[in-house]
Amino acid sequence: MFPRPLTPLAASNGAEPLGRALRRAALGRARAGLGGPPLLLPSMLMFAVIVASSGLLLMIERGILAEMKPLPLHPPSRDGTAWRGTIPESGGLTVGVGDSDLQVRQDVRNRTLRAVCGQPGMPRDPWDLPVGQRRTLLRHILVSDRYRFLYCYVPKVACSNWKRVLKVLAGVLDSVDVRLKMDHRSDLVFLADLRPEEIRYRLQHYFKFLFVRDPLERLLSAYRNKFGEIREYQQRYGAEIVKRYRAGAGPSPAGDDVTFPEFLRYLVDEDPERMNEHWMPVYHLCQPCAVRYDFVGSYERLEADANQVLEWVRAPPHIRFPTRQAWYRPASPESLHYHLCSAPRALLQDVLPKYILDFSLFAYPLPNITREACHQ
Q1: Of 184, 165, 97, 192, which Cα lies nearest the Cα of 302?
Q2: What is the value of pTM for the model shown?
Q3: Which GO terms describe its biological process (predicted)?
Q4: pLDDT at 18 over 90
Q5: Which residues, 6 or more positions from 238, have their beta carbon under 8 angstroms from its beta carbon?
Q6: C-alpha angle 147-150-154 in degrees, rounded to nearest 5
Q7: Measured on CA atoms in the order 115, 118, 119, 123, is the torsion positive or negative?
Q8: CA separation (Å) from 179 to 93, 164, 167, 174, 183?
Q9: CB neighbour list of residue 213: distance below 8 Å, 6 or more residues apart
Q10: pLDDT (mean) for 147-174
């Protein structure tokens, strides 16, 4: 009754397997040299077409939710607390009958993840990863033993609010509305804090989820926040970016006036595996091929998806996901369109391969930066 996995795309004539090519492309630059013409690899373009076609067919047929692992049993004692929702009799996840958008979106992502992660050369387990990649992954997965779930946090995708929720669930904070400066380490448990056998048990038995966002919108949000507001980032990264990419910058720039194209040039020259977590690709942060996540939520419908997760993990009904503060102004599609159209097109073509797996795996469309679109 569940949709069958897509048939793996085999490499022909001894060519490099698609999985390895995609992973390599995400690490490499899209052009041969600094003076060479921008190039988007054919395999990436073909894959984008496959994903787009699959998504279109799914939207037409309104596909059903792909198979997910059942929720594990919770500890029997809950101090008599009333729980939101009920445990499905079959033990599986349920989605409201009327929420066809959520069903279709999850089906698109599940099919895409199976298709890409099933390719030769793609990791199937965290212990398949090189040590550095595994360390990054385990440092980004938060643990709730009381509610038996794992959350891979992605900076600039509401991770501060999720950490606030975890602290409330753990009894450290009284309310998600407490407006204290967020300590991103204390009173939180990460998979990296545990022994290998404890990690394996939780990966096998706990409910696992993450939240994603349009890759370029996430980059713009990080750029605006870190280089427009945070002095530490201006001094540590901004000053170096200005010295490296701005002619006549001088020996000691302040780093508080980094332009978006300068930030993109910096990203082109960075190894994705060594990037700061605020602009590291989600693929490298959360390794969705090595970890089989039960749910991938969207920033675009954050509150609904987050409260659906809280229902699935059977959080107390008085705990809700924090609402966005009135003063907060996220990076809008219009602002993103302006910044992308103001950047050199060749530069964008160099940046996109770094994030191609984020676009592909999570079914985000590539940006339309044609001259016609930018002049509208």
Answers
A1: 165
A2: 0.76
A3: carbohydrate biosynthetic process; dermatan sulfate proteoglycan metabolic process
A4: no
A5: 227, 253, 254, 255, 256, 257, 258
A6: 135
A7: positive
A8: 33, 10, 13, 11, 12
A9: 154, 156, 157, 221, 298, 299, 300
A10: 94
- Cβ atoms 215, 359 nearer than 8 A: yes
Residue 203, SS3?
A: helix
pLDDT in tens, 218-256: 999 999 999 998 999 999 999 999 999 999 888 889 999
Q: What is the dihedral of CA 160, 166, 168, 170, to 10 degrees?
A: -150
Rounded Cα distance between 277 and 296, Å, is 19
Look at the block and give the residue holding tokens 């999720």: 162
Q: How does pLDDT run across 205-220, given as a tens digit for each residue? A: 999 999 999 999 999 9
Let me know the angle formed at the C-alpha of 131 by 142 and 209, rounded to the nearest 5 degrees.
25
Token readout for 298 is 């969207």
Residue 354 neighbours by CB under 8 Å, 6+ apart: 26, 27, 267, 268, 270, 272, 281
Q: State the chain's mean pLDDT as an integer.
A: 78
Q: Give φ, ψ of 188 to 5 degrees.
A: -125, 145
Residue 245's contacts (CB-CB under 8 Å, 6 or more residues apart) are 262, 265, 266
**Among residues 23, 6, 49, 18, which one has the least CA distance to residue 119?**
18
CB neighbour burial string for 229-241, b if at least 16 within 10 angstroms, e if fewer: eeeebbeebbbeb
The 10s digit of each residue's pLDDT in 197-207 is 999 999 999 99
- DSSP 8-class letter at 34: T
* CA neighbor of 101 nearest in space, from 367, 245, 360, 308: 308
Q: How many CA atoms lie within 13 A of 364 on its CB side?
A: 22
